[in-house]
Amino acid sequence: MKPIEALNLIRGQWQESVSGNRFQSYNPADTREILGTAPRSTPDDVDKAVTAAREAFDTWRRTSRIKRGEYIDQLAQLIKRDLNALAELVTRECGKPINEGRADVVEALHMAQYVAGMVRMPHGEIIDSEIAEKDAYILRKPKGVVACITPWNFPVAIPLWTILPSLLEGNTVVFKPSEDTPLCAHRLAELFVEAGFPPGVFNVVHGYGEDAGDALVHHPGVDVVVFTGSYAVGRYIEQECAKQHKFCAVEMGGKNAVIVLDDANLDIAVHAAILSAFKTSGQRCVSSNRIIVHEKIEPEFTRRFVETARMIKIGNGLDPDVFMGPLINEQGVQKYLHHNQKAIEEGAEVLLPGGLLKEGELQYGHFVAPFVYRMRHRSDSFVLREEAFSPHVAIIPVSSLEEAVFVYNDTPYGLAMAVITEDYRKWRYVRDNCEFGVGYVNLPSIGAEVHLPFGGVKGSGNGHPSASALFDAVTHKVAFTVNHGTEIKMAQGLSAKIR
Ligand code: NAP
Q: Which of the residues are catalytic?
């Protein structure tokens, strides 16, 4: 693949960072393969991008919503045209197997189609007033400049979850992609330019979180920060935005689980648990590090789960038979090893030892094997409460439905939950008593669709889900009342008399 030299996109112009510094993007499946470089942006670059977005805002917000949707429709067509090339780039840059790289781009395409289709749907509400001569409306207005800060694990889909609703509603955007996947972001930016978005409406600043991302969060010209990433960074952004009286929507990590009840269909249970634990090598925010299993069926479930996990094919995601690609970077590998070590220290019964894979070509990538253990729940456990973001999986035996729900809830997070049961009373109990934002019955804990809200509770989010629900975060709901009478009448029987 020819190396890609990414640039910032500011006011419709491709620009180098004022620092002149660049950083490399490499293939996590083979770290010898440098895929390209991107500008290491500074606060000055961020200032230029935010200024461009501010200046473009006034014209963009007054552009008809249907016209704004047409730009997004054009973008959808370009994504469809380039689907295969984008999918391959996703696989090369973030290591996901090619089928997952493709699904990432298809999800981005669905988001673009969904948002473009929204333009001809009802947008506000007409509502009755207490006064017969008054018409009342609820209208939506854009908030201004939206900063979209995204993680590496869905380098095409997640940016569009946040950027497109923002743009459709008349906001302008400054996008700071992950430093691990700048080239996917660059290809996306090229499509925005080709789709004809007016200069300044959509801007990109590449770079590191601590300089470009931080400067964006603190820039006074940014009205809204939409962040997707880890709890540590999201929590920091929440605090910094609160100090500035700035609105933020943060979607963060999870310590998700599959709950397997005593009446579960074991074929479905094992299949769902394997997909939840190991798809994307456990690097989805909705990946399950915990499989909570009723002790009546736990031995048989565990035998089958371990047997299947042992057979997983690990390798370069460009091979269509590979199920698990590499971890994203050295930090990800260290996190995985740390969790494995902590599990052993906390008394886990190790069933699959996992570890770094160093045979043949695998030695050049960040490849690791599934680490699986059995452990009773403990509220003071580190490994049963903190996200490992890797193929690190605890099988936790429980003795009742109520205990399963207690164990599920006993973490700082509340993102994804899957329950495997044939009994509607049981899944209803789980649905009503587990804390989550994305729930499944007889399915894995992964598998978002763009027309559903996507977000979590507790440490997983601050109540402003992404995808179809993001429209609420990037608009103000405005009450607008018109008097058609010839005198002023007030609600609540309030007197309108002056003398
Ligand atoms: P991350 O380290 O939190 O980074 C996310 C983004 O924030 C990156 O663009 C990062 O830049 C930037 N950033 C870092 N420090 C910053 C700062 N001080 N100010 C502003 N921006 C800053 O997360 P990640 O490792 O990319 O992604 C994995 C995490 O994301 C996991 O915890 C996963 O569960 C979560 N996630 C959540 C969802 C969801 O919807 N709930 C979806 C996907 C992933 P750099 O790349 O330069 O560090």
A: 251, 285
Nearest to 68 by CA among 215, 197, 252, 239: 197
Q: Is 228 in the pocket of ligand 1 (CB under 6 A)?
A: yes
Q: Is the CB of 39 under 6 A from ligand 1?
A: no
> Could you identify the residue written with the tokens 């903190």?
386
Instruction: Compute φ and ψ for 176, nearest 5 degrees.
Output: -115, 100
- Which position has the token pair 């299947």? 308
Whether ligand 1 lies within 6 angstroms of the CB of 252 is answered as yes
- Give the rounded distance of the alpha carbon of 20 from its chain centre: 30
Mutate which of 285, 366, 387 for ligand 1 pocket (most atoms within 8 A of beta carbon): 285
CA dist 472 → 50, 140, 164, 247 (Å) = 22, 9, 13, 12
Question: Cα(231) to centroid of ligand 1, in Å?
Answer: 8
Ligand 1 centroid distance, CA of 155 (Å): 11
pTM, entire model: 0.98
Nearest to 12, CA basis, from 37, 58, 48? 48
User: What type of residue is 286?
Assistant: V
Domains and CATH numbers, the chain: 4-252+461-479 (3.40.605.10), 256-441 (3.40.309.10)
What letter would DSSP give residue 2? P
* 413 CA distance to ligand 1 middle (Å): 16
Q: Label residues 95-109 b or e (16+ Cβ within 10 Å = b).
A: bbbbebbbbbbbbbb
User: 136: which 2 tokens?
Assistant: 């009342």
Task: Extract the tokens encoding 96.
Answer: 């996901």
Q: Tell me, what's the pLDDT at 123?
A: 87
pLDDT along the chain (499 residues), means of 10: 95 97 98 98 98 98 98 98 98 98 98 96 92 96 98 98 98 98 98 98 98 98 98 98 98 98 98 98 98 98 98 98 98 98 98 97 98 98 98 98 98 98 98 98 96 96 89 95 97 95
Largest CA distance in the chain: 92
Ligand 1 contact via 149 beta carbon (within 6 Å): yes
Contacts of 352 (CB under 8 A, 6+ apart): 306, 309, 310, 369, 370, 371, 372, 373
- Amino acid 109: pLDDT: 98
Name the token pair of 124. Answer: 């506000």
Atom of ligand 1 nearest to the CA of 254: 34
Closest approach atom of ligand 1 to CA 454: 40
